[in-house]
Amino acid sequence: MRLLCITLGGLLATTACAQPLSTQLLHFFQQREPNYAATLSLDLPTATRSLPCSQPQLQLPSNSRRWGPLTLTARCGKQVTVLRVVVKVIGTYYQSRQRIEQGASITAQQIMPKIGRLDTLPRASWLTPPPLPLIALQTIPAGKILTKNQFRQPWVIKQGETVPITFSGRGFHITGRAVALDNAGINQTIRIRLATGQRLTARLNDQHELIVQ
Are 120 and 75 spatial neighbours (Cβ–Cβ below 8 Å)? Predict the structure, then answer.
């Protein structure tokens, strides 16, 4: 039957060839999250498993979360059905190995990877190794799941400093100096004030250069 479906798939569509909705949904989310496809599963309420067509067009809202309880639509021609699913994912996240004091610069020895359900974690949890060094914005107990809002980058530029800047555009680079109006870390945007009093914004790149574009 599978061979027949492949051979005739370009000519006709039959109910026998169509995959169950649960399988279509699983493939949809696996394509959306290829790095977690092997550990991704979902729950689909029984009441939503029947649709008026065998191959609906599935779509998530543009601001949808990655996983957990999600709502998406299944379109069959002009008819749209709202589906509610729970996407479950197993993967690596990070937590504190020991207590981290507020204001401390954390080290690799203070954090550790864990494997578990990513869909149950707080938002903005670290799913990749945190880019050390980082400064703790709060005291973090041992065994706490690490989230991005618990830390900031070390300041490379501090408010009030006079800093070199580069004006960059198509075919030109002009250097100068300005006063920093904010603190800034790598890849952050900062406000600056020129000697003329004009205020601009610049981005601090990984070479510690302030670029005005």
Answer: no
C-alpha span between 190 and 168 (Å, rounded): 16
Contact in structure between 110 and 97 (CB atoms under 8 Å): yes
Alpha-carbon separation of residue 195 from 92, 176, 192 (angstroms): 49, 10, 10
DSSP state of 23: H
Q: What is the DSSP letter of 126?
A: -
Per-residue three-class SS string for 39-75 = HEEEECCHHHCCCCCCCCEEECCCCCCCCEEEEEEEE
Contact 184, 156 (CB under 8 A): yes
As a whole number of Å, the end-to-end CA separation of the chain is 60
Q: The tokens 């937590």 sit on which residue?
A: 95
**Quick check: pTM over 0.70?**
yes
Element (H, E) at 166: strand 162-169
Q: Using CA atoms, how far apart are residues 185 and 153, in angstroms rounded to an integer?
A: 6
Whole-number Å distance between alpha carbons of 9 and 99: 59
Structure confidence by residue, pLDDT tens digits, 71-114: 999 999 999 999 999 999 999 999 999 999 999 999 999 999 99
- For strand 134-136 and strand 105-106, is the pairing parallel, antiparallel, or unpaired? antiparallel
Residue in the block written with tokens 């689909």? 44
Local structure of residue 204 (DSSP, 8 states): E
Among the listed residues 66, 141, 131, 59, the one whose alpha carbon sits nearest the alpha carbon of residue 102: 141
